[in-house]
Amino acid sequence: MKKYLALILMVTLVSACSNNNWRTASREPAGIAPDPLIQKEAVIEVYAADAFSWRGWFAVHSWIAVKASDATEYTVYEVVGWRVNNGLPALHEFQTTTPDRYWYGAKPQKILSIEGDKAAELIPKITDAVSRYPWANEYTVFPGPNSNTFPAWIGLQVPELGLELPFSAIGSGYAD
Questions:
Q1: Which of 158, 171, 169 is nearest to 47 (CA)?
Q2: What 3-state DSSP class applies to 73?
Q3: Cβ proximity of 76 and 63 under 8 Å
Q4: Angstrom distance (rounded) from CA 72 to CA 93
Q5: DSSP assignment, residue 18?
Q6: Given CB 3.0 to 4.6 Å as the disulfide criterion, which of 1, 42, 57, 100 pairs with 69?
Q7: Taking the domains of the chain in order of start, what are their residue ranges?
Q8: Where residue 2 falls among pLDDT bands split at 50, 70, 90?
Q9: Are the C-beta atoms of residues 49 and 76 closer than 8 Å to each other?
Q10: 61: part of which helix (H) or strand (E)?
C-alpha cells in the first residue's frame, strides 16, 4: 500500500510541476534585457531558461541575442528541435525588442552580457560564426546537437566572448 501511495504522490507531483501545454505557457519578456529604444550602444546577451516541461528539472535551453549600435531591435539566434520535425532548419533567427522572453513558462537568466565597443566589435564575428554553424538543420536531444550546442559552438568560434554555459546546458559539450 505504501508503494502505491508513494507512486501516486510522485505522479501527482510530476504532473503538477511540469507545464505540458506549450500553447498556454508564458512567453512574456522577463525585463532583464536593455530596452533597444533606450540603449543605443551595441549589446550581446546570452540567456538560459529551464527546458520545457519535466526536462527543465535537468536541463536548460539557451540562446544568443545581439543588437548593433543604434538598432531598435535585437537579432535572436536559437536552435529549436520542433522546427526540424516540421521540415524547417533547427537554427532560427528573428528580430524582436524582447530577447529575454520566458521560455515556455521558465524565466530566463542572463548568463552573458557585453555592451558598447566590445559588443560592436564582436557582433560581426558572431554573425559570421552563425552562418557557419555546422548543425543548422539537425537536432538531437542527447548528446546533441541541440539548443545548447549552438551557443557553445559560437563561444568556441568567438573565444573573446568568454562564454561559459551552465552545467545544465546539456549538449554544450557536443561542440568540442
A1: 169
A2: coil
A3: yes
A4: 16
A5: -
A6: 42
A7: 25-175
A8: low
A9: no
A10: strand 60-67
Give this prediction's pTM: 0.85
Whole-number Å distance between alpha carbons of 173 and 143: 8
57: DSSP letter? G
Cell digits for 146? 541541440
Number of H helices and number of E strands within the chain?
4, 5
Residue type, 140: T
The span from the CA of 83 to the CA of 34, in Å, is 28
CA 118 to chain centre: 22
β-sheet with 91-96: strand ranges across: 91-96, 74-79, 60-67, 43-50, 109-115
Asked if 150 contacts 133 with a C-beta cutoff of 8 angstroms, the reply is yes
Q: Are 154 and 164 in contact (CB under 8 A)?
A: no
